[in-house]
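Field: COMPLEX_INPUT
Field: COMPONENT_COUNT = three
Field: RESIDUE_TOTAL = 892
Field: MODE = joint
Values follow.
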Amino acid sequence: MSNPEMAIPITRAPPVAAATAARAPLRTFWGELPRALLLLAGLAALVYAASGDNFSLNILASSFLFAGLASAWNIIGGFGGQFSLAHSVFFAVGAYTTANLYLKLGLSPWLGLVPAFLLAAAVAMLVSWPVFRLRGPFFAIATMAFTEVALAIGNYAEWLTGGTRGLSIPFRLGVGNMIFRDRMSYALLMLGFCALTLIVVVAVHRSRLGYYLQAVRDNEQAARASGVSVLRVKLTGMAISAGLTGIGGGLFFMQVRVADPAALLSLFDFGVKFALIALIGGLGSVYGPVLGALVIIPLESWLRAELGGLLPGANLIVLSLLLIGAALFMKHGIVGLGRGLAARVAAGRSTGDRA
Amino acid sequence: MTALLSVEGLSKRFGGLLAVNDVSFSVAPGELVSIIGPNGAGKTTLFNLLTGQLLPSTGRVRCDGHDITRLSPNRRARLGLGRTFQISQTLTSLTVLENAMVGAFLHHRGLKDAARKAEEALALVGLDHRAGVRAGILTLSERRRLEVARALALEPRIVLLDEVMAGLNPTEVEEIVALVERLNAEGHTFLVIEHNLKVVRRFSRRVIVIERGAMLADGTAAAVLDDPRVVEAYIGRPRAA
Amino acid sequence: MADLANILAVGILLGGTYALVSVGLNLIFGVIRVVNFAQGEFVMLGMYGAYAAYAVLGLDPAVALLVVLPALFVLGAALQRLVLARLRTEPTMQIFATFGLLMLIENAVLAATRGTAYSVPSAVAQASLSVGGVQVGASRLLALAAATLAAAGLGLFLRRTMLGRAIRAVAQDSAAARLMGVDVERIYWLTFGIGTALAGLAGCLLAPIYSLSPQIGTSFILPAFAVVVLGGLGSVLGAYVGGFIVGLTEAFAGYYLDPALKHAVLFAVFIGVLIVRPSGLFGQVGAEEVGLREQS
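Field: COMPLEX_OUTPUT
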């Protein structure tokens, strides 16, 4: 079929309009990467500034871990619009894979992160393949039910998880064992995870898959009409998202070295928190989840320290109020606030611009 | 086998209702064919059978030699079937350019290639000056053109338009008619489902009339629109001229 | 034989409890198309309300209803007007908001009670009957009766009263109902209030059975979702029957498999049905599609 290669004269669109239209240049992966690296360099500077201060280093390590986890959730939850509450399952799968391979086969956790990624991705694809037929809240409910199923199985399968008593990893210092004495190492380890995740997120966002995920989120019917295999796109996004979450789980377990299924599969501590951080930072934005984690995690540990002894659950009360408030008044999160501010400044500068 | 799209004995039954009854026709490369019919004649059902939204009870649909009767909408798109929606289905959180890119990715994996192709498609429909804005803020007429651009970005063999004029004012209708005519003159093949006889007369090409699910006439616009049976089918509304 | 009778009895009584917990959830879903993750917390508030009425006023839970139901009605109506009414067209933000409410209520109660577990004595709680060798707790029997009455009463209310008819009209087609002069916003907050009050009813009646903890609401929400989905979204009868399906599934799985796995089995069944027949066993096919399309 003849498709004209040349754009022929246009019926409307005077050249003036074309010139004034705000037009961001198309950013490719390599074009976006410097911004991501700049942000990561900033985070590294924070670690450097906190050196020697174990309290701050712990908070940073936790913030980076959750920055990575929320970014991973954002791939399917934000870009793809699939509200998964099952990510704590993939987190636990990664944790138990890494821990068991280390405990039973002596495999270094560094290497154990690879099967953690693969197994978490495989479980996610298996689980979500049928569930992706469901939309919106029904997808959320089904994934929440999966968390319950996983908890029951986790408590039952003692050989794998230690059951309700939990599984613990003996303290044997060593880089190969991923067990360190100084807190700096953990902060850097988690920064590495955050960096890996962020770079994957940028790669996904600046690729066909990223656009397809957003197309599926906005309108499945339109995506199909454009030749998009909706299920395949969702599964691919889910696999990448869950795999990264599995790596996060492995790292988390090696850091805490003891956990039981109820802790790893906790909706408040993991499943929903990934989503909450992504929302506060900016759902579906590239850097939002990282920014969200840098706000939420320090805030949370401060609240826990200040209010935890006073009133049990007070930190979660504040978080839940933040969650409701953001759902009502700050749907695009910190990133959205920043963009709105930038737009207002720009509008103030050039008054002749059209709406 | 020269037909780009061919429909053979297509029927769709909903319970006791035969919504589409033994419809057969074919569209050759470069044609602009309109399907018209009064409200409830089965146009939309027929359209959904062609796009894969519904599966037929009997009959076949072929596109460019491939049997697409039971293929999913996305497989059809891959085989060269582009479409627009009656109720416009833009990707509201993406920009105009990105909407067109989602179509262009079908044959252009790379970001830059897809963007180039998308810009071409936007230029074809006269939306290139809006490339950077969010599709959610477009006017209805612009959204319709954006859907045409997204379909064109698929580099389709044939484009199916589902009542692209619905809800537009006369000036906007003129614009879209001119756009479709121009694209057709450039070699794009169109199958247009249309309710508005005035529009169909403007196209003044081949027209297929559907009435109560069955084909009533198939011929040049002039011949078909003056056919007494067609006038009869549209009775109750003054014949648009 | 006696085993089977026992399992059936346990399943049916448990089913009554689940049906009672789910009636309000299903009403809210059917009419407002909001999947309320905080519904279990309303049940929990009902339980604590019954405890407060007992501790402060010395009231039996059955009498505490008179205070707890109106209070929860007001709470539900207020939450609908202040929070959910602003999120009509945004399903994702509804999930965030109702999950936020879940966290808020659970932890607010935790903070207020400092995690102390309470139990509520009731005149009927200690009594139990023996029917053909099967022990039946009077409280569970009461919950079963209340579930039956609530379902029947709600069904009659929706069918026979003007307000009930208006609610059904909104459930079927809110745009059309608006055109017919129904004040849709008012129906929404009324419905949310009624749904919340029904959760309060469940809470009061279940208070003597369970040891009260702030986390108990969360333990109700997933079985309640299972009930609603299995029984049929937006169908009063469906929620009632769904309760027994869930109760019996749990009872049989707990007996024939490992009790530790009964929830795993239940939710596996639930997920299976959700996938195969998302409109539920009694719901109108496509109901969930309509609900979602309307929102998005």
